[in-house]
Design goal:
Strand order of the largest sheet: 1-2
Radius of gyration: 44 Å
Structural class: mainly alpha
Number of strands: 2
Largest sheet: 2 strands, antiparallel
Distance between the termini: 145 Å
Order of helices and strands: HHHHHHHHHEEHHHHHH
Helix content: 55-70%
Length: 381
């Protein structure tokens, strides 16, 4: 019966099978598999990098808002702070959770990858579930009749790792088992996990009790994971750079690589080798993304300008936005603004009468009416 995980597992199995058919080397097939997956997930990396660039471009405005309420920890103030930041994000069409989506999409792929690598009989060889059950029953029959130790592990109904089943098939002779068509299985039909001339078997689990070259896988996992964590932190935008120096962050940066090393001692070496390849390709991808979409950097003056804008009232901001749009003709500076009354025009000072006019008035004699004798006119006192 096909499970819901097969929707992802089967296509991933095709990729791994194609890589093995092209290279006939399981290590190179894992690298091919990691490369193809990295290319498929590259658009998600672009989206995540664009989201980081957008968040970095809003850093001055966000810091201006935070500085405006600095030192005030009461709940109303913090609510007001968060409200203004969310309004800023909405105005700028920024989703702070947008960078989490690519990471969430990769999680089911990682889980499916584990199932594909540890199930080569199903996803690489293409054997059906009935064929795999028949192989397990045959392994149990041969081991129990020859009194081999550990045959109880392969009893019917028990969950058995296909990597272990594959190793037992080789020990007992692959010709004793049948494929989907009922024909005898040949060695060429099975993936070969041995590399470096048989010096390493990727189907085995690294262990200190069996000291061999497989111990290089956990060591490489530690080195590459530490390097990937350090380089990615340097190339990725961090909205809270002060937290990088916190003791808790340093412990986390060290804990994750150590956890990867621990897991590499509990699973097949093929999984650990895939992690090595995937971390190397992730570093290369991050370098490419930073070159394509560099994180913007701001000067102190940019932060000060953002603070001045944040401290303005909403009315001032709207007025400033209106002033950015100028008319095509020059506005006279003396024109009234917003219906204000025009300034009063200054009155011209009255010119004083000149002395010449006064003398003319003094020398001017009264005129006599027509027909009046001057001798009869009244004399002036």
């Amino acid at each position: 019966m096909t499970s819901i995980w097969d929707i992802i597992n089967i296509p991933l199995g095709w990729i791994l099978k194609l890589g093995y058919e092209l290279t006939h080397n399981y290590a190179l097939a894992l690298f091919f598999f990691a490369l193809v997956l990295q290319i498929i997930l590259f658009p998600l990396g672009i989206k995540q990098q664009k989201n980081s660039v957008k968040q970095a471009s809003l850093r001055p405005k966000e810091m201006a808002i935070r500085n405006k309420y600095a030192g005030r920890t009461d709940k109303p103030t913090q609510d007001k702070l968060n409200q203004e930041i969310m309004e800023l994000y909405q105005r700028e069409n920024f989703n702070p959770m947008g960078g989490c989506l690519p990471m969430l999409i990769q999680l089911p792929i990682i889980f499916s990858l584990y199932n594909v690598v540890i199930s080569p009989l199903k996803y690489v060889c293409g054997f059906t579930a009935d064929t795999i059950n028949a192989i397990q029953a045959k392994v149990y029959e041969i081991m129990s009749t020859t009194n081999m130790t550990g045959f109880e592990t392969f009893a019917e109904g028990k969950a058995v790792r296909q990597l272990d089943l594959l190793n037992r098939m080789r020990e007992l002779g692959v010709g004793n088992f049948l494929d989907n068509s009922g024909s005898a299985i040949t060695e060429e039909m099975l993936p070969n996990f041995s590399i470096f001339g048989g010096m390493m078997d990727l189907s085995q689990t690294p262990s200190f009790t069996n000291f061999n070259l497989l111990l290089l896988i956990p060591l490489l996992t530690l080195i590459v994971t530490l390097g990937s964590t350090f380089i990615t932190r340097k190339l990725t935008y961090n909205p809270n750079p002060e937290a990088q120096n916190d003791l808790s962050m340093k412990i986390m940066n060290l804990t994750m690589p150590l956890l990867s090393v621990y897991i590499s001692f509990t699973i097949a070496a093929a999984i650990g080798l895939y992690w090595v390849f995937r971390n190397i390709l992730s570093i290369i991808q991050q370098v490419i993304l930073v070159k394509m979409f560099p994180i913007p950097k701001f000067t102190e003056e940019d932060y000060k300008a953002a603070e001045r804008e944040a401290n303005m009232s909403k009315r001032q901001i709207k007025k400033a936005e209106k002033q950015k749009v100028r008319s095509l003709h020059r506005i006279d500076e003396d024109d009234p603004i917003d219906g204000a009354p025009a300034p009063a025009q200054p009155q011209k000072p009255t010119e004083p009468e000149s002395d010449d006019d006064s003398d003319d008035q003094k020398d001017k004699k009264p005129e006599l009416k027509e027909g009046v004798n001057p001798d009869d006119a009244p004399k002036l006192k």
